[in-house]
Amino acid sequence: MYLHKIYFIWSLVRLVLLGEGQGEESWKSLNVSVSGRLHSIQPFALPCYSFYNGNKVEVNETACALIREDYVENSIHAERPNGYMNLQSEMCLGDPVDQCLLDNTEIPAPEPARGTSCNQGSVPSYYIEVEEISDITAALNFSQDHGVPLVIKNSGHDYMTRNSQKGSISLWVHKLKGLTYHDDFVPEGCGVDLRVGRAITAGTGVSTGDIYNFAHEHSSTFVGGYSASVAASGGWVQGGGHSVLSPVYGLGVDRVVEFKIVTPDGVARVANQCQHDDLFWALRGGGGGTFGVVLEATHRVEPLIPVAVASIKLPSNGTAETSLEWMELMARESLAWGKQGWGGHVAGIYLTYMNPTPDIANLTDGGAAAKSSMRAASEFALAHGGSSEIEVLPSFLDVWNKYVLPGALTTAGVTRVLGTRLIPRKLFSDEAGITRFMDFLKAVQKLGFDPRNLYCPVDTPFVADAATKLEVGNHTRPTTSVQPAWYDSLWVVSTSLVVAWNASYADRLQNMTAIIRATLLAEELTGADGGTYLNEANPFTPDWQQSWWGDNYAPLLEIKKKYDPKGLLKCWKCIGFEEKDILSDRFRCQGKLQLDVDQSIKGSL
Ligand SMILES: Cc1cc2nc3c(=O)[nH]c(=O)nc-3n(C[C@H](O)[C@H](O)[C@H](O)COP(=O)(O)OP(=O)(O)OC[C@H]3O[C@@H](n4cnc5c(N)ncnc54)[C@H](O)[C@@H]3O)c2cc1C
Ligand SMILES: *[C@@H]1O[C@H](CO)[C@@H](O)[C@H](O)[C@H]1NC(C)=O
Ligand SMILES: *[C@@H]1O[C@H](CO)[C@@H](O)[C@H](O)[C@H]1NC(C)=O
Ligand SMILES: *[C@@H]1O[C@H](CO)[C@@H](O)[C@H](O)[C@H]1NC(C)=O
Ligand SMILES: *[C@@H]1O[C@H](CO)[C@@H](O)[C@H](O)[C@H]1NC(C)=O
Ligand SMILES: *[C@@H]1O[C@H](CO)[C@@H](O)[C@H](O)[C@H]1NC(C)=O
Ligand SMILES: *[C@@H]1O[C@H](CO)[C@@H](O)[C@H](O)[C@H]1NC(C)=O
Ligand SMILES: *[C@@H]1O[C@H](CO)[C@@H](O)[C@H](O)[C@H]1NC(C)=O
Ligand SMILES: *[C@@H]1O[C@H](CO)[C@@H](O)[C@H](O)[C@H]1NC(C)=O
């Protein structure tokens, strides 16, 4: 109860800080400017609680039953303004009392203990359901006049805590739908010599699954991510956007040809190769939530193509040693597979690979070419009591529906934290490199990361050589702003952990310190040749500018200053985030933990 009281006093202080007491009128007028689409936000699990921010409230049995049943369902989170796939976006990481979670170890999630309070955590205070450009400009004006932070929330897939912020107004852009197919798209303001062929314009709120189906209806293939609910024209593409088809067709940033966006100076702009090309470059890798509110993006698409798929599994009760042997085999085969055009995921106890190149994805050879390419992996799995399924299907959608979708619907409702690193292809090219890679895996195992839980996207533009070779007409497209290591790497190696829903502060600090140690070991493995994917990184990474952007950070910062001179969009370790922000109130949920993690890393060096 003592903590509840402190929390209550803090809430009062915040009410004043937010200006609600003194500026009731200005909130009302903001609401009028956005045609009544300003609403307060309550945490996702509130209907199951009988206290809210320390005050007695009624449990809503109907709403609670649904939330308990669907706590780990991606779709329910993606469709709600208060739905975050990963719990780190709604809990206050630095303060275990300040959260509103359910026990995610059982389905349906048990009811919360009586008397515990649902607290706001890092869930924003308000959201605006964005429909019009003027909703965005009104919010920008309000933020500037009243100092209330803004965040942008779309599908809620972020691992990096950038889609929420304590005390902020959230621009909920998920309702910006709309899909248009173009036979031969010419970016606005470009001459017809810059036509890009078939393309799809997708509103920022459209899910990847909907784009896959829409593309298929137009006899086309969209090169998108794994999870059905990720917003392809949202954070996915702005941060890089990898696909199992990326080895052959490039990253999302290599394929997007135009954005419509409202920049923080309140202007709606088109960004492509012919206008605002600096902004266009920045939006292709600089990260979401930074350069403005994207309304829609246009992506090149491919024709319908047969795709080979290999789904090879070790038994789930195998040993960690077997997984290490498996990973060594994966590392040894990876360059050959890469050159053949395979992409997908290598994990501690399975691989799921896909390949759209005609030599392998041969619809008339009964899968022979694909099977032959994957022979070593199949034999290993079968010899260890596992399974191997390899076939060629007529389209990517067929493969995705059969092999990806069923397993990708229930990953929500956990605090999953990743520690990732792009692994340069040269590491896989000789014995010394493979030995170093295996030594790294054994070292992270000692830190508590079971090799069976490894998960490595193999989605780098390997055959495509997309940075330099994707040509449009007679022009080579300008390079993107993602970490340049994307174009010299083969794998993104990923260790991860799950922080318990009810972990104490000491447990959180231990967990984050462990994953930072794993991250630092991965940095040591690759040196400056590596880097990582800013959408799937460890949010506590110390040298984040270098890790996530390398030499692109400085020019990205210049573009940020040009389009957001007042710094109205600020998110955790986004372009323009400064070290002093770690201590600021709006980032206090991450800030305390960051300082303590830094301290415990330093203490142990
Ligand atoms: C289960 C799962 C599977 C994933 N699979 C893949 C994968 O296969 N490939 C891959 O590359 N990544 C993958 N990711 C990572 C994913 O790309 C990122 O989490 C991405 O940021 C999600 O973007 P979003 O807009 O859907 O999510 P949100 O969490 O809503 O937003 C993410 C970030 O983008 C910003 N943002 C969103 N919309 C806009 C907009 N319209 N304008 C400006 N900023 C915006 C937000 O402010 C936030 O900073 C996966 C993540 C999860 C949780
Ligand atoms: C904004 O106005 C709408 C419609 O009048 C109302 O339903 C809503 O509660 C208002 N929002 C706030 C935060 O008061
Ligand atoms: C309870 O939740 C349901 C479903 O969300 C909603 O329709 C209903 O209005 C809520 N009841 C109350 C009393 O708020
Ligand atoms: C935002 O402010 C600008 C400049 O003060 C003004 O021109 C514009 O009309 C405002 N927009 C909204 C939607 O309030
Ligand atoms: C794993 O499970 C299979 C089938 O359930 C069983 O045959 C095998 O002995 C088990 N292996 C180990 C190492 O427990
Ligand atoms: C596909 O397989 C058939 C039958 O084996 C073969 O004749 C053909 O050459 C193969 N095509 C390619 C592109 O390899
Ligand atoms: C590309 O350049 C060649 C030679 O300069 C020219 O003949 C051709 O018309 C150009 N193509 C386009 C699409 O501009
Ligand atoms: C956390 O929750 C689990 C159930 O999910 C329970 O077994 C455990 O005792 C709880 N831990 C603490 C510290 O309350
Ligand atoms: C994370 O913390 C939990 C306790 O909450 C612990 O059981 C687990 O081993 C930790 N994970 C790692 C990788 O350190």
Automatic annotation (TrEMBL):
For this chain, the family text in UniProt reads: Belongs to the oxygen-dependent FAD-linked oxidoreductase family.
> Gene3D superfamilies from the xrefs?
3.30.465.10
User: SUPFAM superfamilies attached here?
Assistant: FAD-binding/transporter-associated domain-like
UniProt keyword Signal present: yes
GO MF, one example: FAD binding
Q: Which organism is it from?
A: Daldinia eschscholtzii
- Residues making up the signal peptide according to the UniProt record: 1-23
Work out whether the entry's keyword set contains Oxidoreductase: yes
Per the UniProt record, the lineage of the source organism begins with: Eukaryota, Fungi, Dikarya, Ascomycota, Pezizomycotina
Q: InterPro entries of this UniProt entry?
A: BBE, FAD-bd_PCMH, FAD-bd_PCMH-like_sf, FAD-bd_PCMH_sub2, FAD-linked_Oxidoreductases_BP, Oxid_FAD_bind_N
Q: Which residues form the FAD-binding PCMH-type domain?
A: 120-304
Query: What is the protein name for this chain?
Result: FAD-binding PCMH-type domain-containing protein
Sorted alphabetically, the keyword list is: Oxidoreductase, Signal
